[in-house]
C-alpha cells in the first residue's frame, strides 16, 4: 500500500426529528445564543448574523452615515441644512466632535485614513464570518434548481469552529472542524463536518478512520455555546483567553474520542433548542476524498485494489487473495474518479487538489441524497402510522409528490450529479421505499375518503342542530313581543289557527332583520379574527428569521484549486 498525499473525510449525518420544526424560532434561538456564526435562508441573498455581529454591523453602518453627512458640509448654511434634514446624525456627529476634542487634549488623534482602514477591516471580518455560508449558497444554486413554491422549507447554519488533535496511526495533526447544520421543516436535521487527516496516511488508515466510531480525537477545544444553557461540563478546564467572544473548554481525552461522540454533542444541543428528540431513522454517510501519493506516475492503475478497498471500506486481511471491484466510475471528468455505494463515497483526485471550501461541489450532492433518503424513510413511517386527518393526508400527498421529484433528480442541473444521486438512492432501496409510499398513500386516500364521507354526514347533522340552537338563541329577545302578538291575534279572532300566527311571525320585518344582522356580525367578527391572526403570525415569522446582513460591494475570491 502506498501513502496518500491528501485525505479528508466529510461525515454527513442526517437525523429524523420527532416533530415538524419551527425554522424561524430555531434560527432566532441559535443566533441569540451565539451557537452559530451565521444562518442562511434560501430566499435571502445575504446571511443572518448573531446579536454580537449584528451590533457591529449596525455600528459600522451608523459611522458610515455620519461620515457621509460630514463630507457634505461646505459651510455654515450647509451645516444648518444638515441639522434640519438629519437631526439625529447631527447630534451623533457633534457628540463625536466633543469626544475628539477630549482625545486631542490627551494626545490621542486618529486621522481619516485610519478610520477607513478600520471600517475596511470590520467589513472583511463580517464577510469572513459569512464566507462559507455565502459560497455554500452560491454552489447550491449552481448545482440545483429552485422550482419549489416553498423555497424556505429549510435553513442552513454555520456553527462555531471546534479544534482537535487527531491521531491516525503514528501521525498527529491539529484540525479545525467547521460544522454546517441544515434544518428541514418536515423534521430532519443534517450535520456535516470534514476531518482532514495528516499527510502520508495509508489507504488502510483512511479506511479505519472513516468509520465515525473510530477513536481519533486526543484533545478538543469546544466553545461554551456548544453546551446547552444550564448544562454542566464533564471534565476539562477553561482556556485562559476567550475566542470569538466566548469561553473555550479544553478537554484532554483519557480515551480517544470519536466523531460519533462529537456528533452526539451537536445533535443534543440542537434538539435542546428546537425542543424535540430523535425519532426514526438516522444515517451517517462518509464522503472520502484523497489525493494520490507520488510513488508512481500511473497511481490509479497501479493502486486499483487500494481504490477498491477504500470505495467499500474494507481493510485487507493478511494473506487476502480476493480481488475486489470498486464499481462503476461515476465521474464525468478524466481528472478524478468517483465511486459511491449505500454506505460511503470515494473521490480520487488525480489532478492538483487541496482540501478546502470548494469541496462543497461534491459534498452538497451527498448531503441532498441523505436528506431525501431520511425524508423518504420518515414518510414511510408516517404512512404506516395511518393518520387519516384531512391536514395529515394533504401533507402526506404533497410530501410524497415532492420526494418523488427529488428521488428522480428533477432539481439537479447536471446529468453527472443526477446519475450519482440515482445510483446511491437505488443502493439504499429508494425505489422500493417509493413503491411502499405510493401504495400507502393510495390506501390512505381511500381510508380518508371513507372517513370524510362519515364526517360530512355528522357535520350536516351538527350544522342543522347548530342552526336550531342559533335560531332559538336569536329569538329569545323577541319572545315577549311574540307572545304579545299571539295574544293580540287570538283576542281579535279566537278562531285563528296556529299556522296563521306563524306566517305573521315569518313575515315580520323586525324579526327577520334581527336574524340577518346577527349572522352578518358573527361572520364579520370571524373574518377579522382570522386576518389578525395571519398578520400577527407573519410579523412574528419575520422577526424570528434573524438580522439580515446588509453589506454591499463585496467580492469573495477563493484560490483553492479544484478539479475540472
TrEMBL record:
Domain of life: Bacteria
Annotated keywords: Membrane, Transmembrane, Transmembrane helix
Transmembrane segments: 75-94, 463-483, 510-536
Protein name: Uncharacterized protein
